[in-house]
Amino acid sequence: VNDAHAAPRSVGVVVVAAGSGTRLGADVPKAFVQVAGRSLLSYAVERVTQVAHLARLVIVVPEGHGTATALGDVAPVPEGTVVVPGGAERTDSVRAGLAEVGEVDIVLIHDAARAFTPVAVFDRVVAAVAAGASGAVPGLPVVDTIKAVDADGTITGTPDRAGLRAVQTPQGFDADVLRAAYASGLSATDDAALVETLGHHVRVVAGDPLAFKVTTPEDLARAQRLVASWAASVD
Ligand code: C5P
To answer: Which residue has the least CA distance to atom 1 on ligand 1?
Structure first.
């Protein structure tokens, strides 16, 4: 019986915001960096709270920022939001968040640094998992030719660009599958990679340029221009 389109399924979202601001040259955690007077995290949370069937929101913050009350100044969060401290690597932070996500059908893992990801991207990811995929990630076609290289910089291969995607977040999964992947103790910069390793099918759905990750000062400048353009179009 294919009941993929049956009752809506509950969605838990883990927003990982425990990274440092090192590459950005910031003196606060990256997710707390301000754009037009608001933290990156607050932009991310604003979008996440619009996700359909959201049953649980977990925010993973740097050590020492671990209460919803303390977070109040940085980003208003809806009642019932769980705030937990993260770890040294992104994987550790995801694992900490996953432990708090509770009984939901679908889990989305989202980078706070991808603060401007449109709600439609979340919806596409959820729809793909609800339709039966073990996992779904947003991705964009690759514009550059990508080379595989060895330690000396000698090219070892040139994959066909048509078969490549640059992936973003939110990455969404069947909750049981993701828990199993993290229970394996493996580590990856990408949640989908863990799930793929276990042999599950993960699909790529259409990403969005607005889901870019704020990593460098240039990215931050792009974020500032973006928000300024929205403000200008409202006037
Ligand atoms: O460092 P990078 O930009 O790849 O991090 C992606 C996301 O993972 C960011 O939102 C960052 O806050 C989060 N992260 C985390 N814990 C870490 C490292 C990164 O929550 N130890």
So the answer is: 19
